[in-house]
Amino acid sequence: MAELRWTDEALDWLGNIHRYIAHDNPTAAAKVIDGIVGKAELLTSFPDLGTRLRIVPEGEVRMILYGHYRIVYLHRTDTKAIEILGVFHGALDMDRYLP
User: Fold this and answer.
1) Distance between CA 4 and CA 70 in Å, rounded?
2) 99 HSE (CA, 13 A, CB side)
3) Could you give the maximum distance between any two Cα atoms of the chain, in Å?
């Protein structure tokens, strides 16, 4: 089973998503965050679940979907760990933020 790590930037994205939704509906915000985290946790058992976006020296940058959000992660080839790089709304140009 692969280790799951969240980068500081990914945690910032989660916080921003939560604050944005919670402004109108705190219950919905909690459900969305729980869903995103739950989907990311699937990667510990199925690290190749997502679509490969690119290959980098550290491994493969991949993406899975949860609702309107794209969870982007690095599947490291050296440690086999999964690093969540960011969580992006579908309307956002995520390429500006990726390695």
Assistant:
1) 17
2) 18
3) 43
In the chain, the number of structural domains is 1
Tell me if 96 is assigned to some domain: no
Q: Does any domain span residue 94?
A: no
Residue located via tokens 């999964």: 82
Query: Which of 75, 70, 76, 77 lies closest to 95, judged by CA?
Result: 70
Assign residue 12 the CATH number of its domain.
3.30.2310.20
Check if the beta carbon of residue 86 is closer than 8 Å to that of residue 9.
Answer: yes
Structure confidence by residue, pLDDT tens digits, 13-72: 999 999 999 999 999 999 999 999 999 999 999 999 999 999 999 999 999 999 999 999
What is the value of pTM for the model shown?
0.90
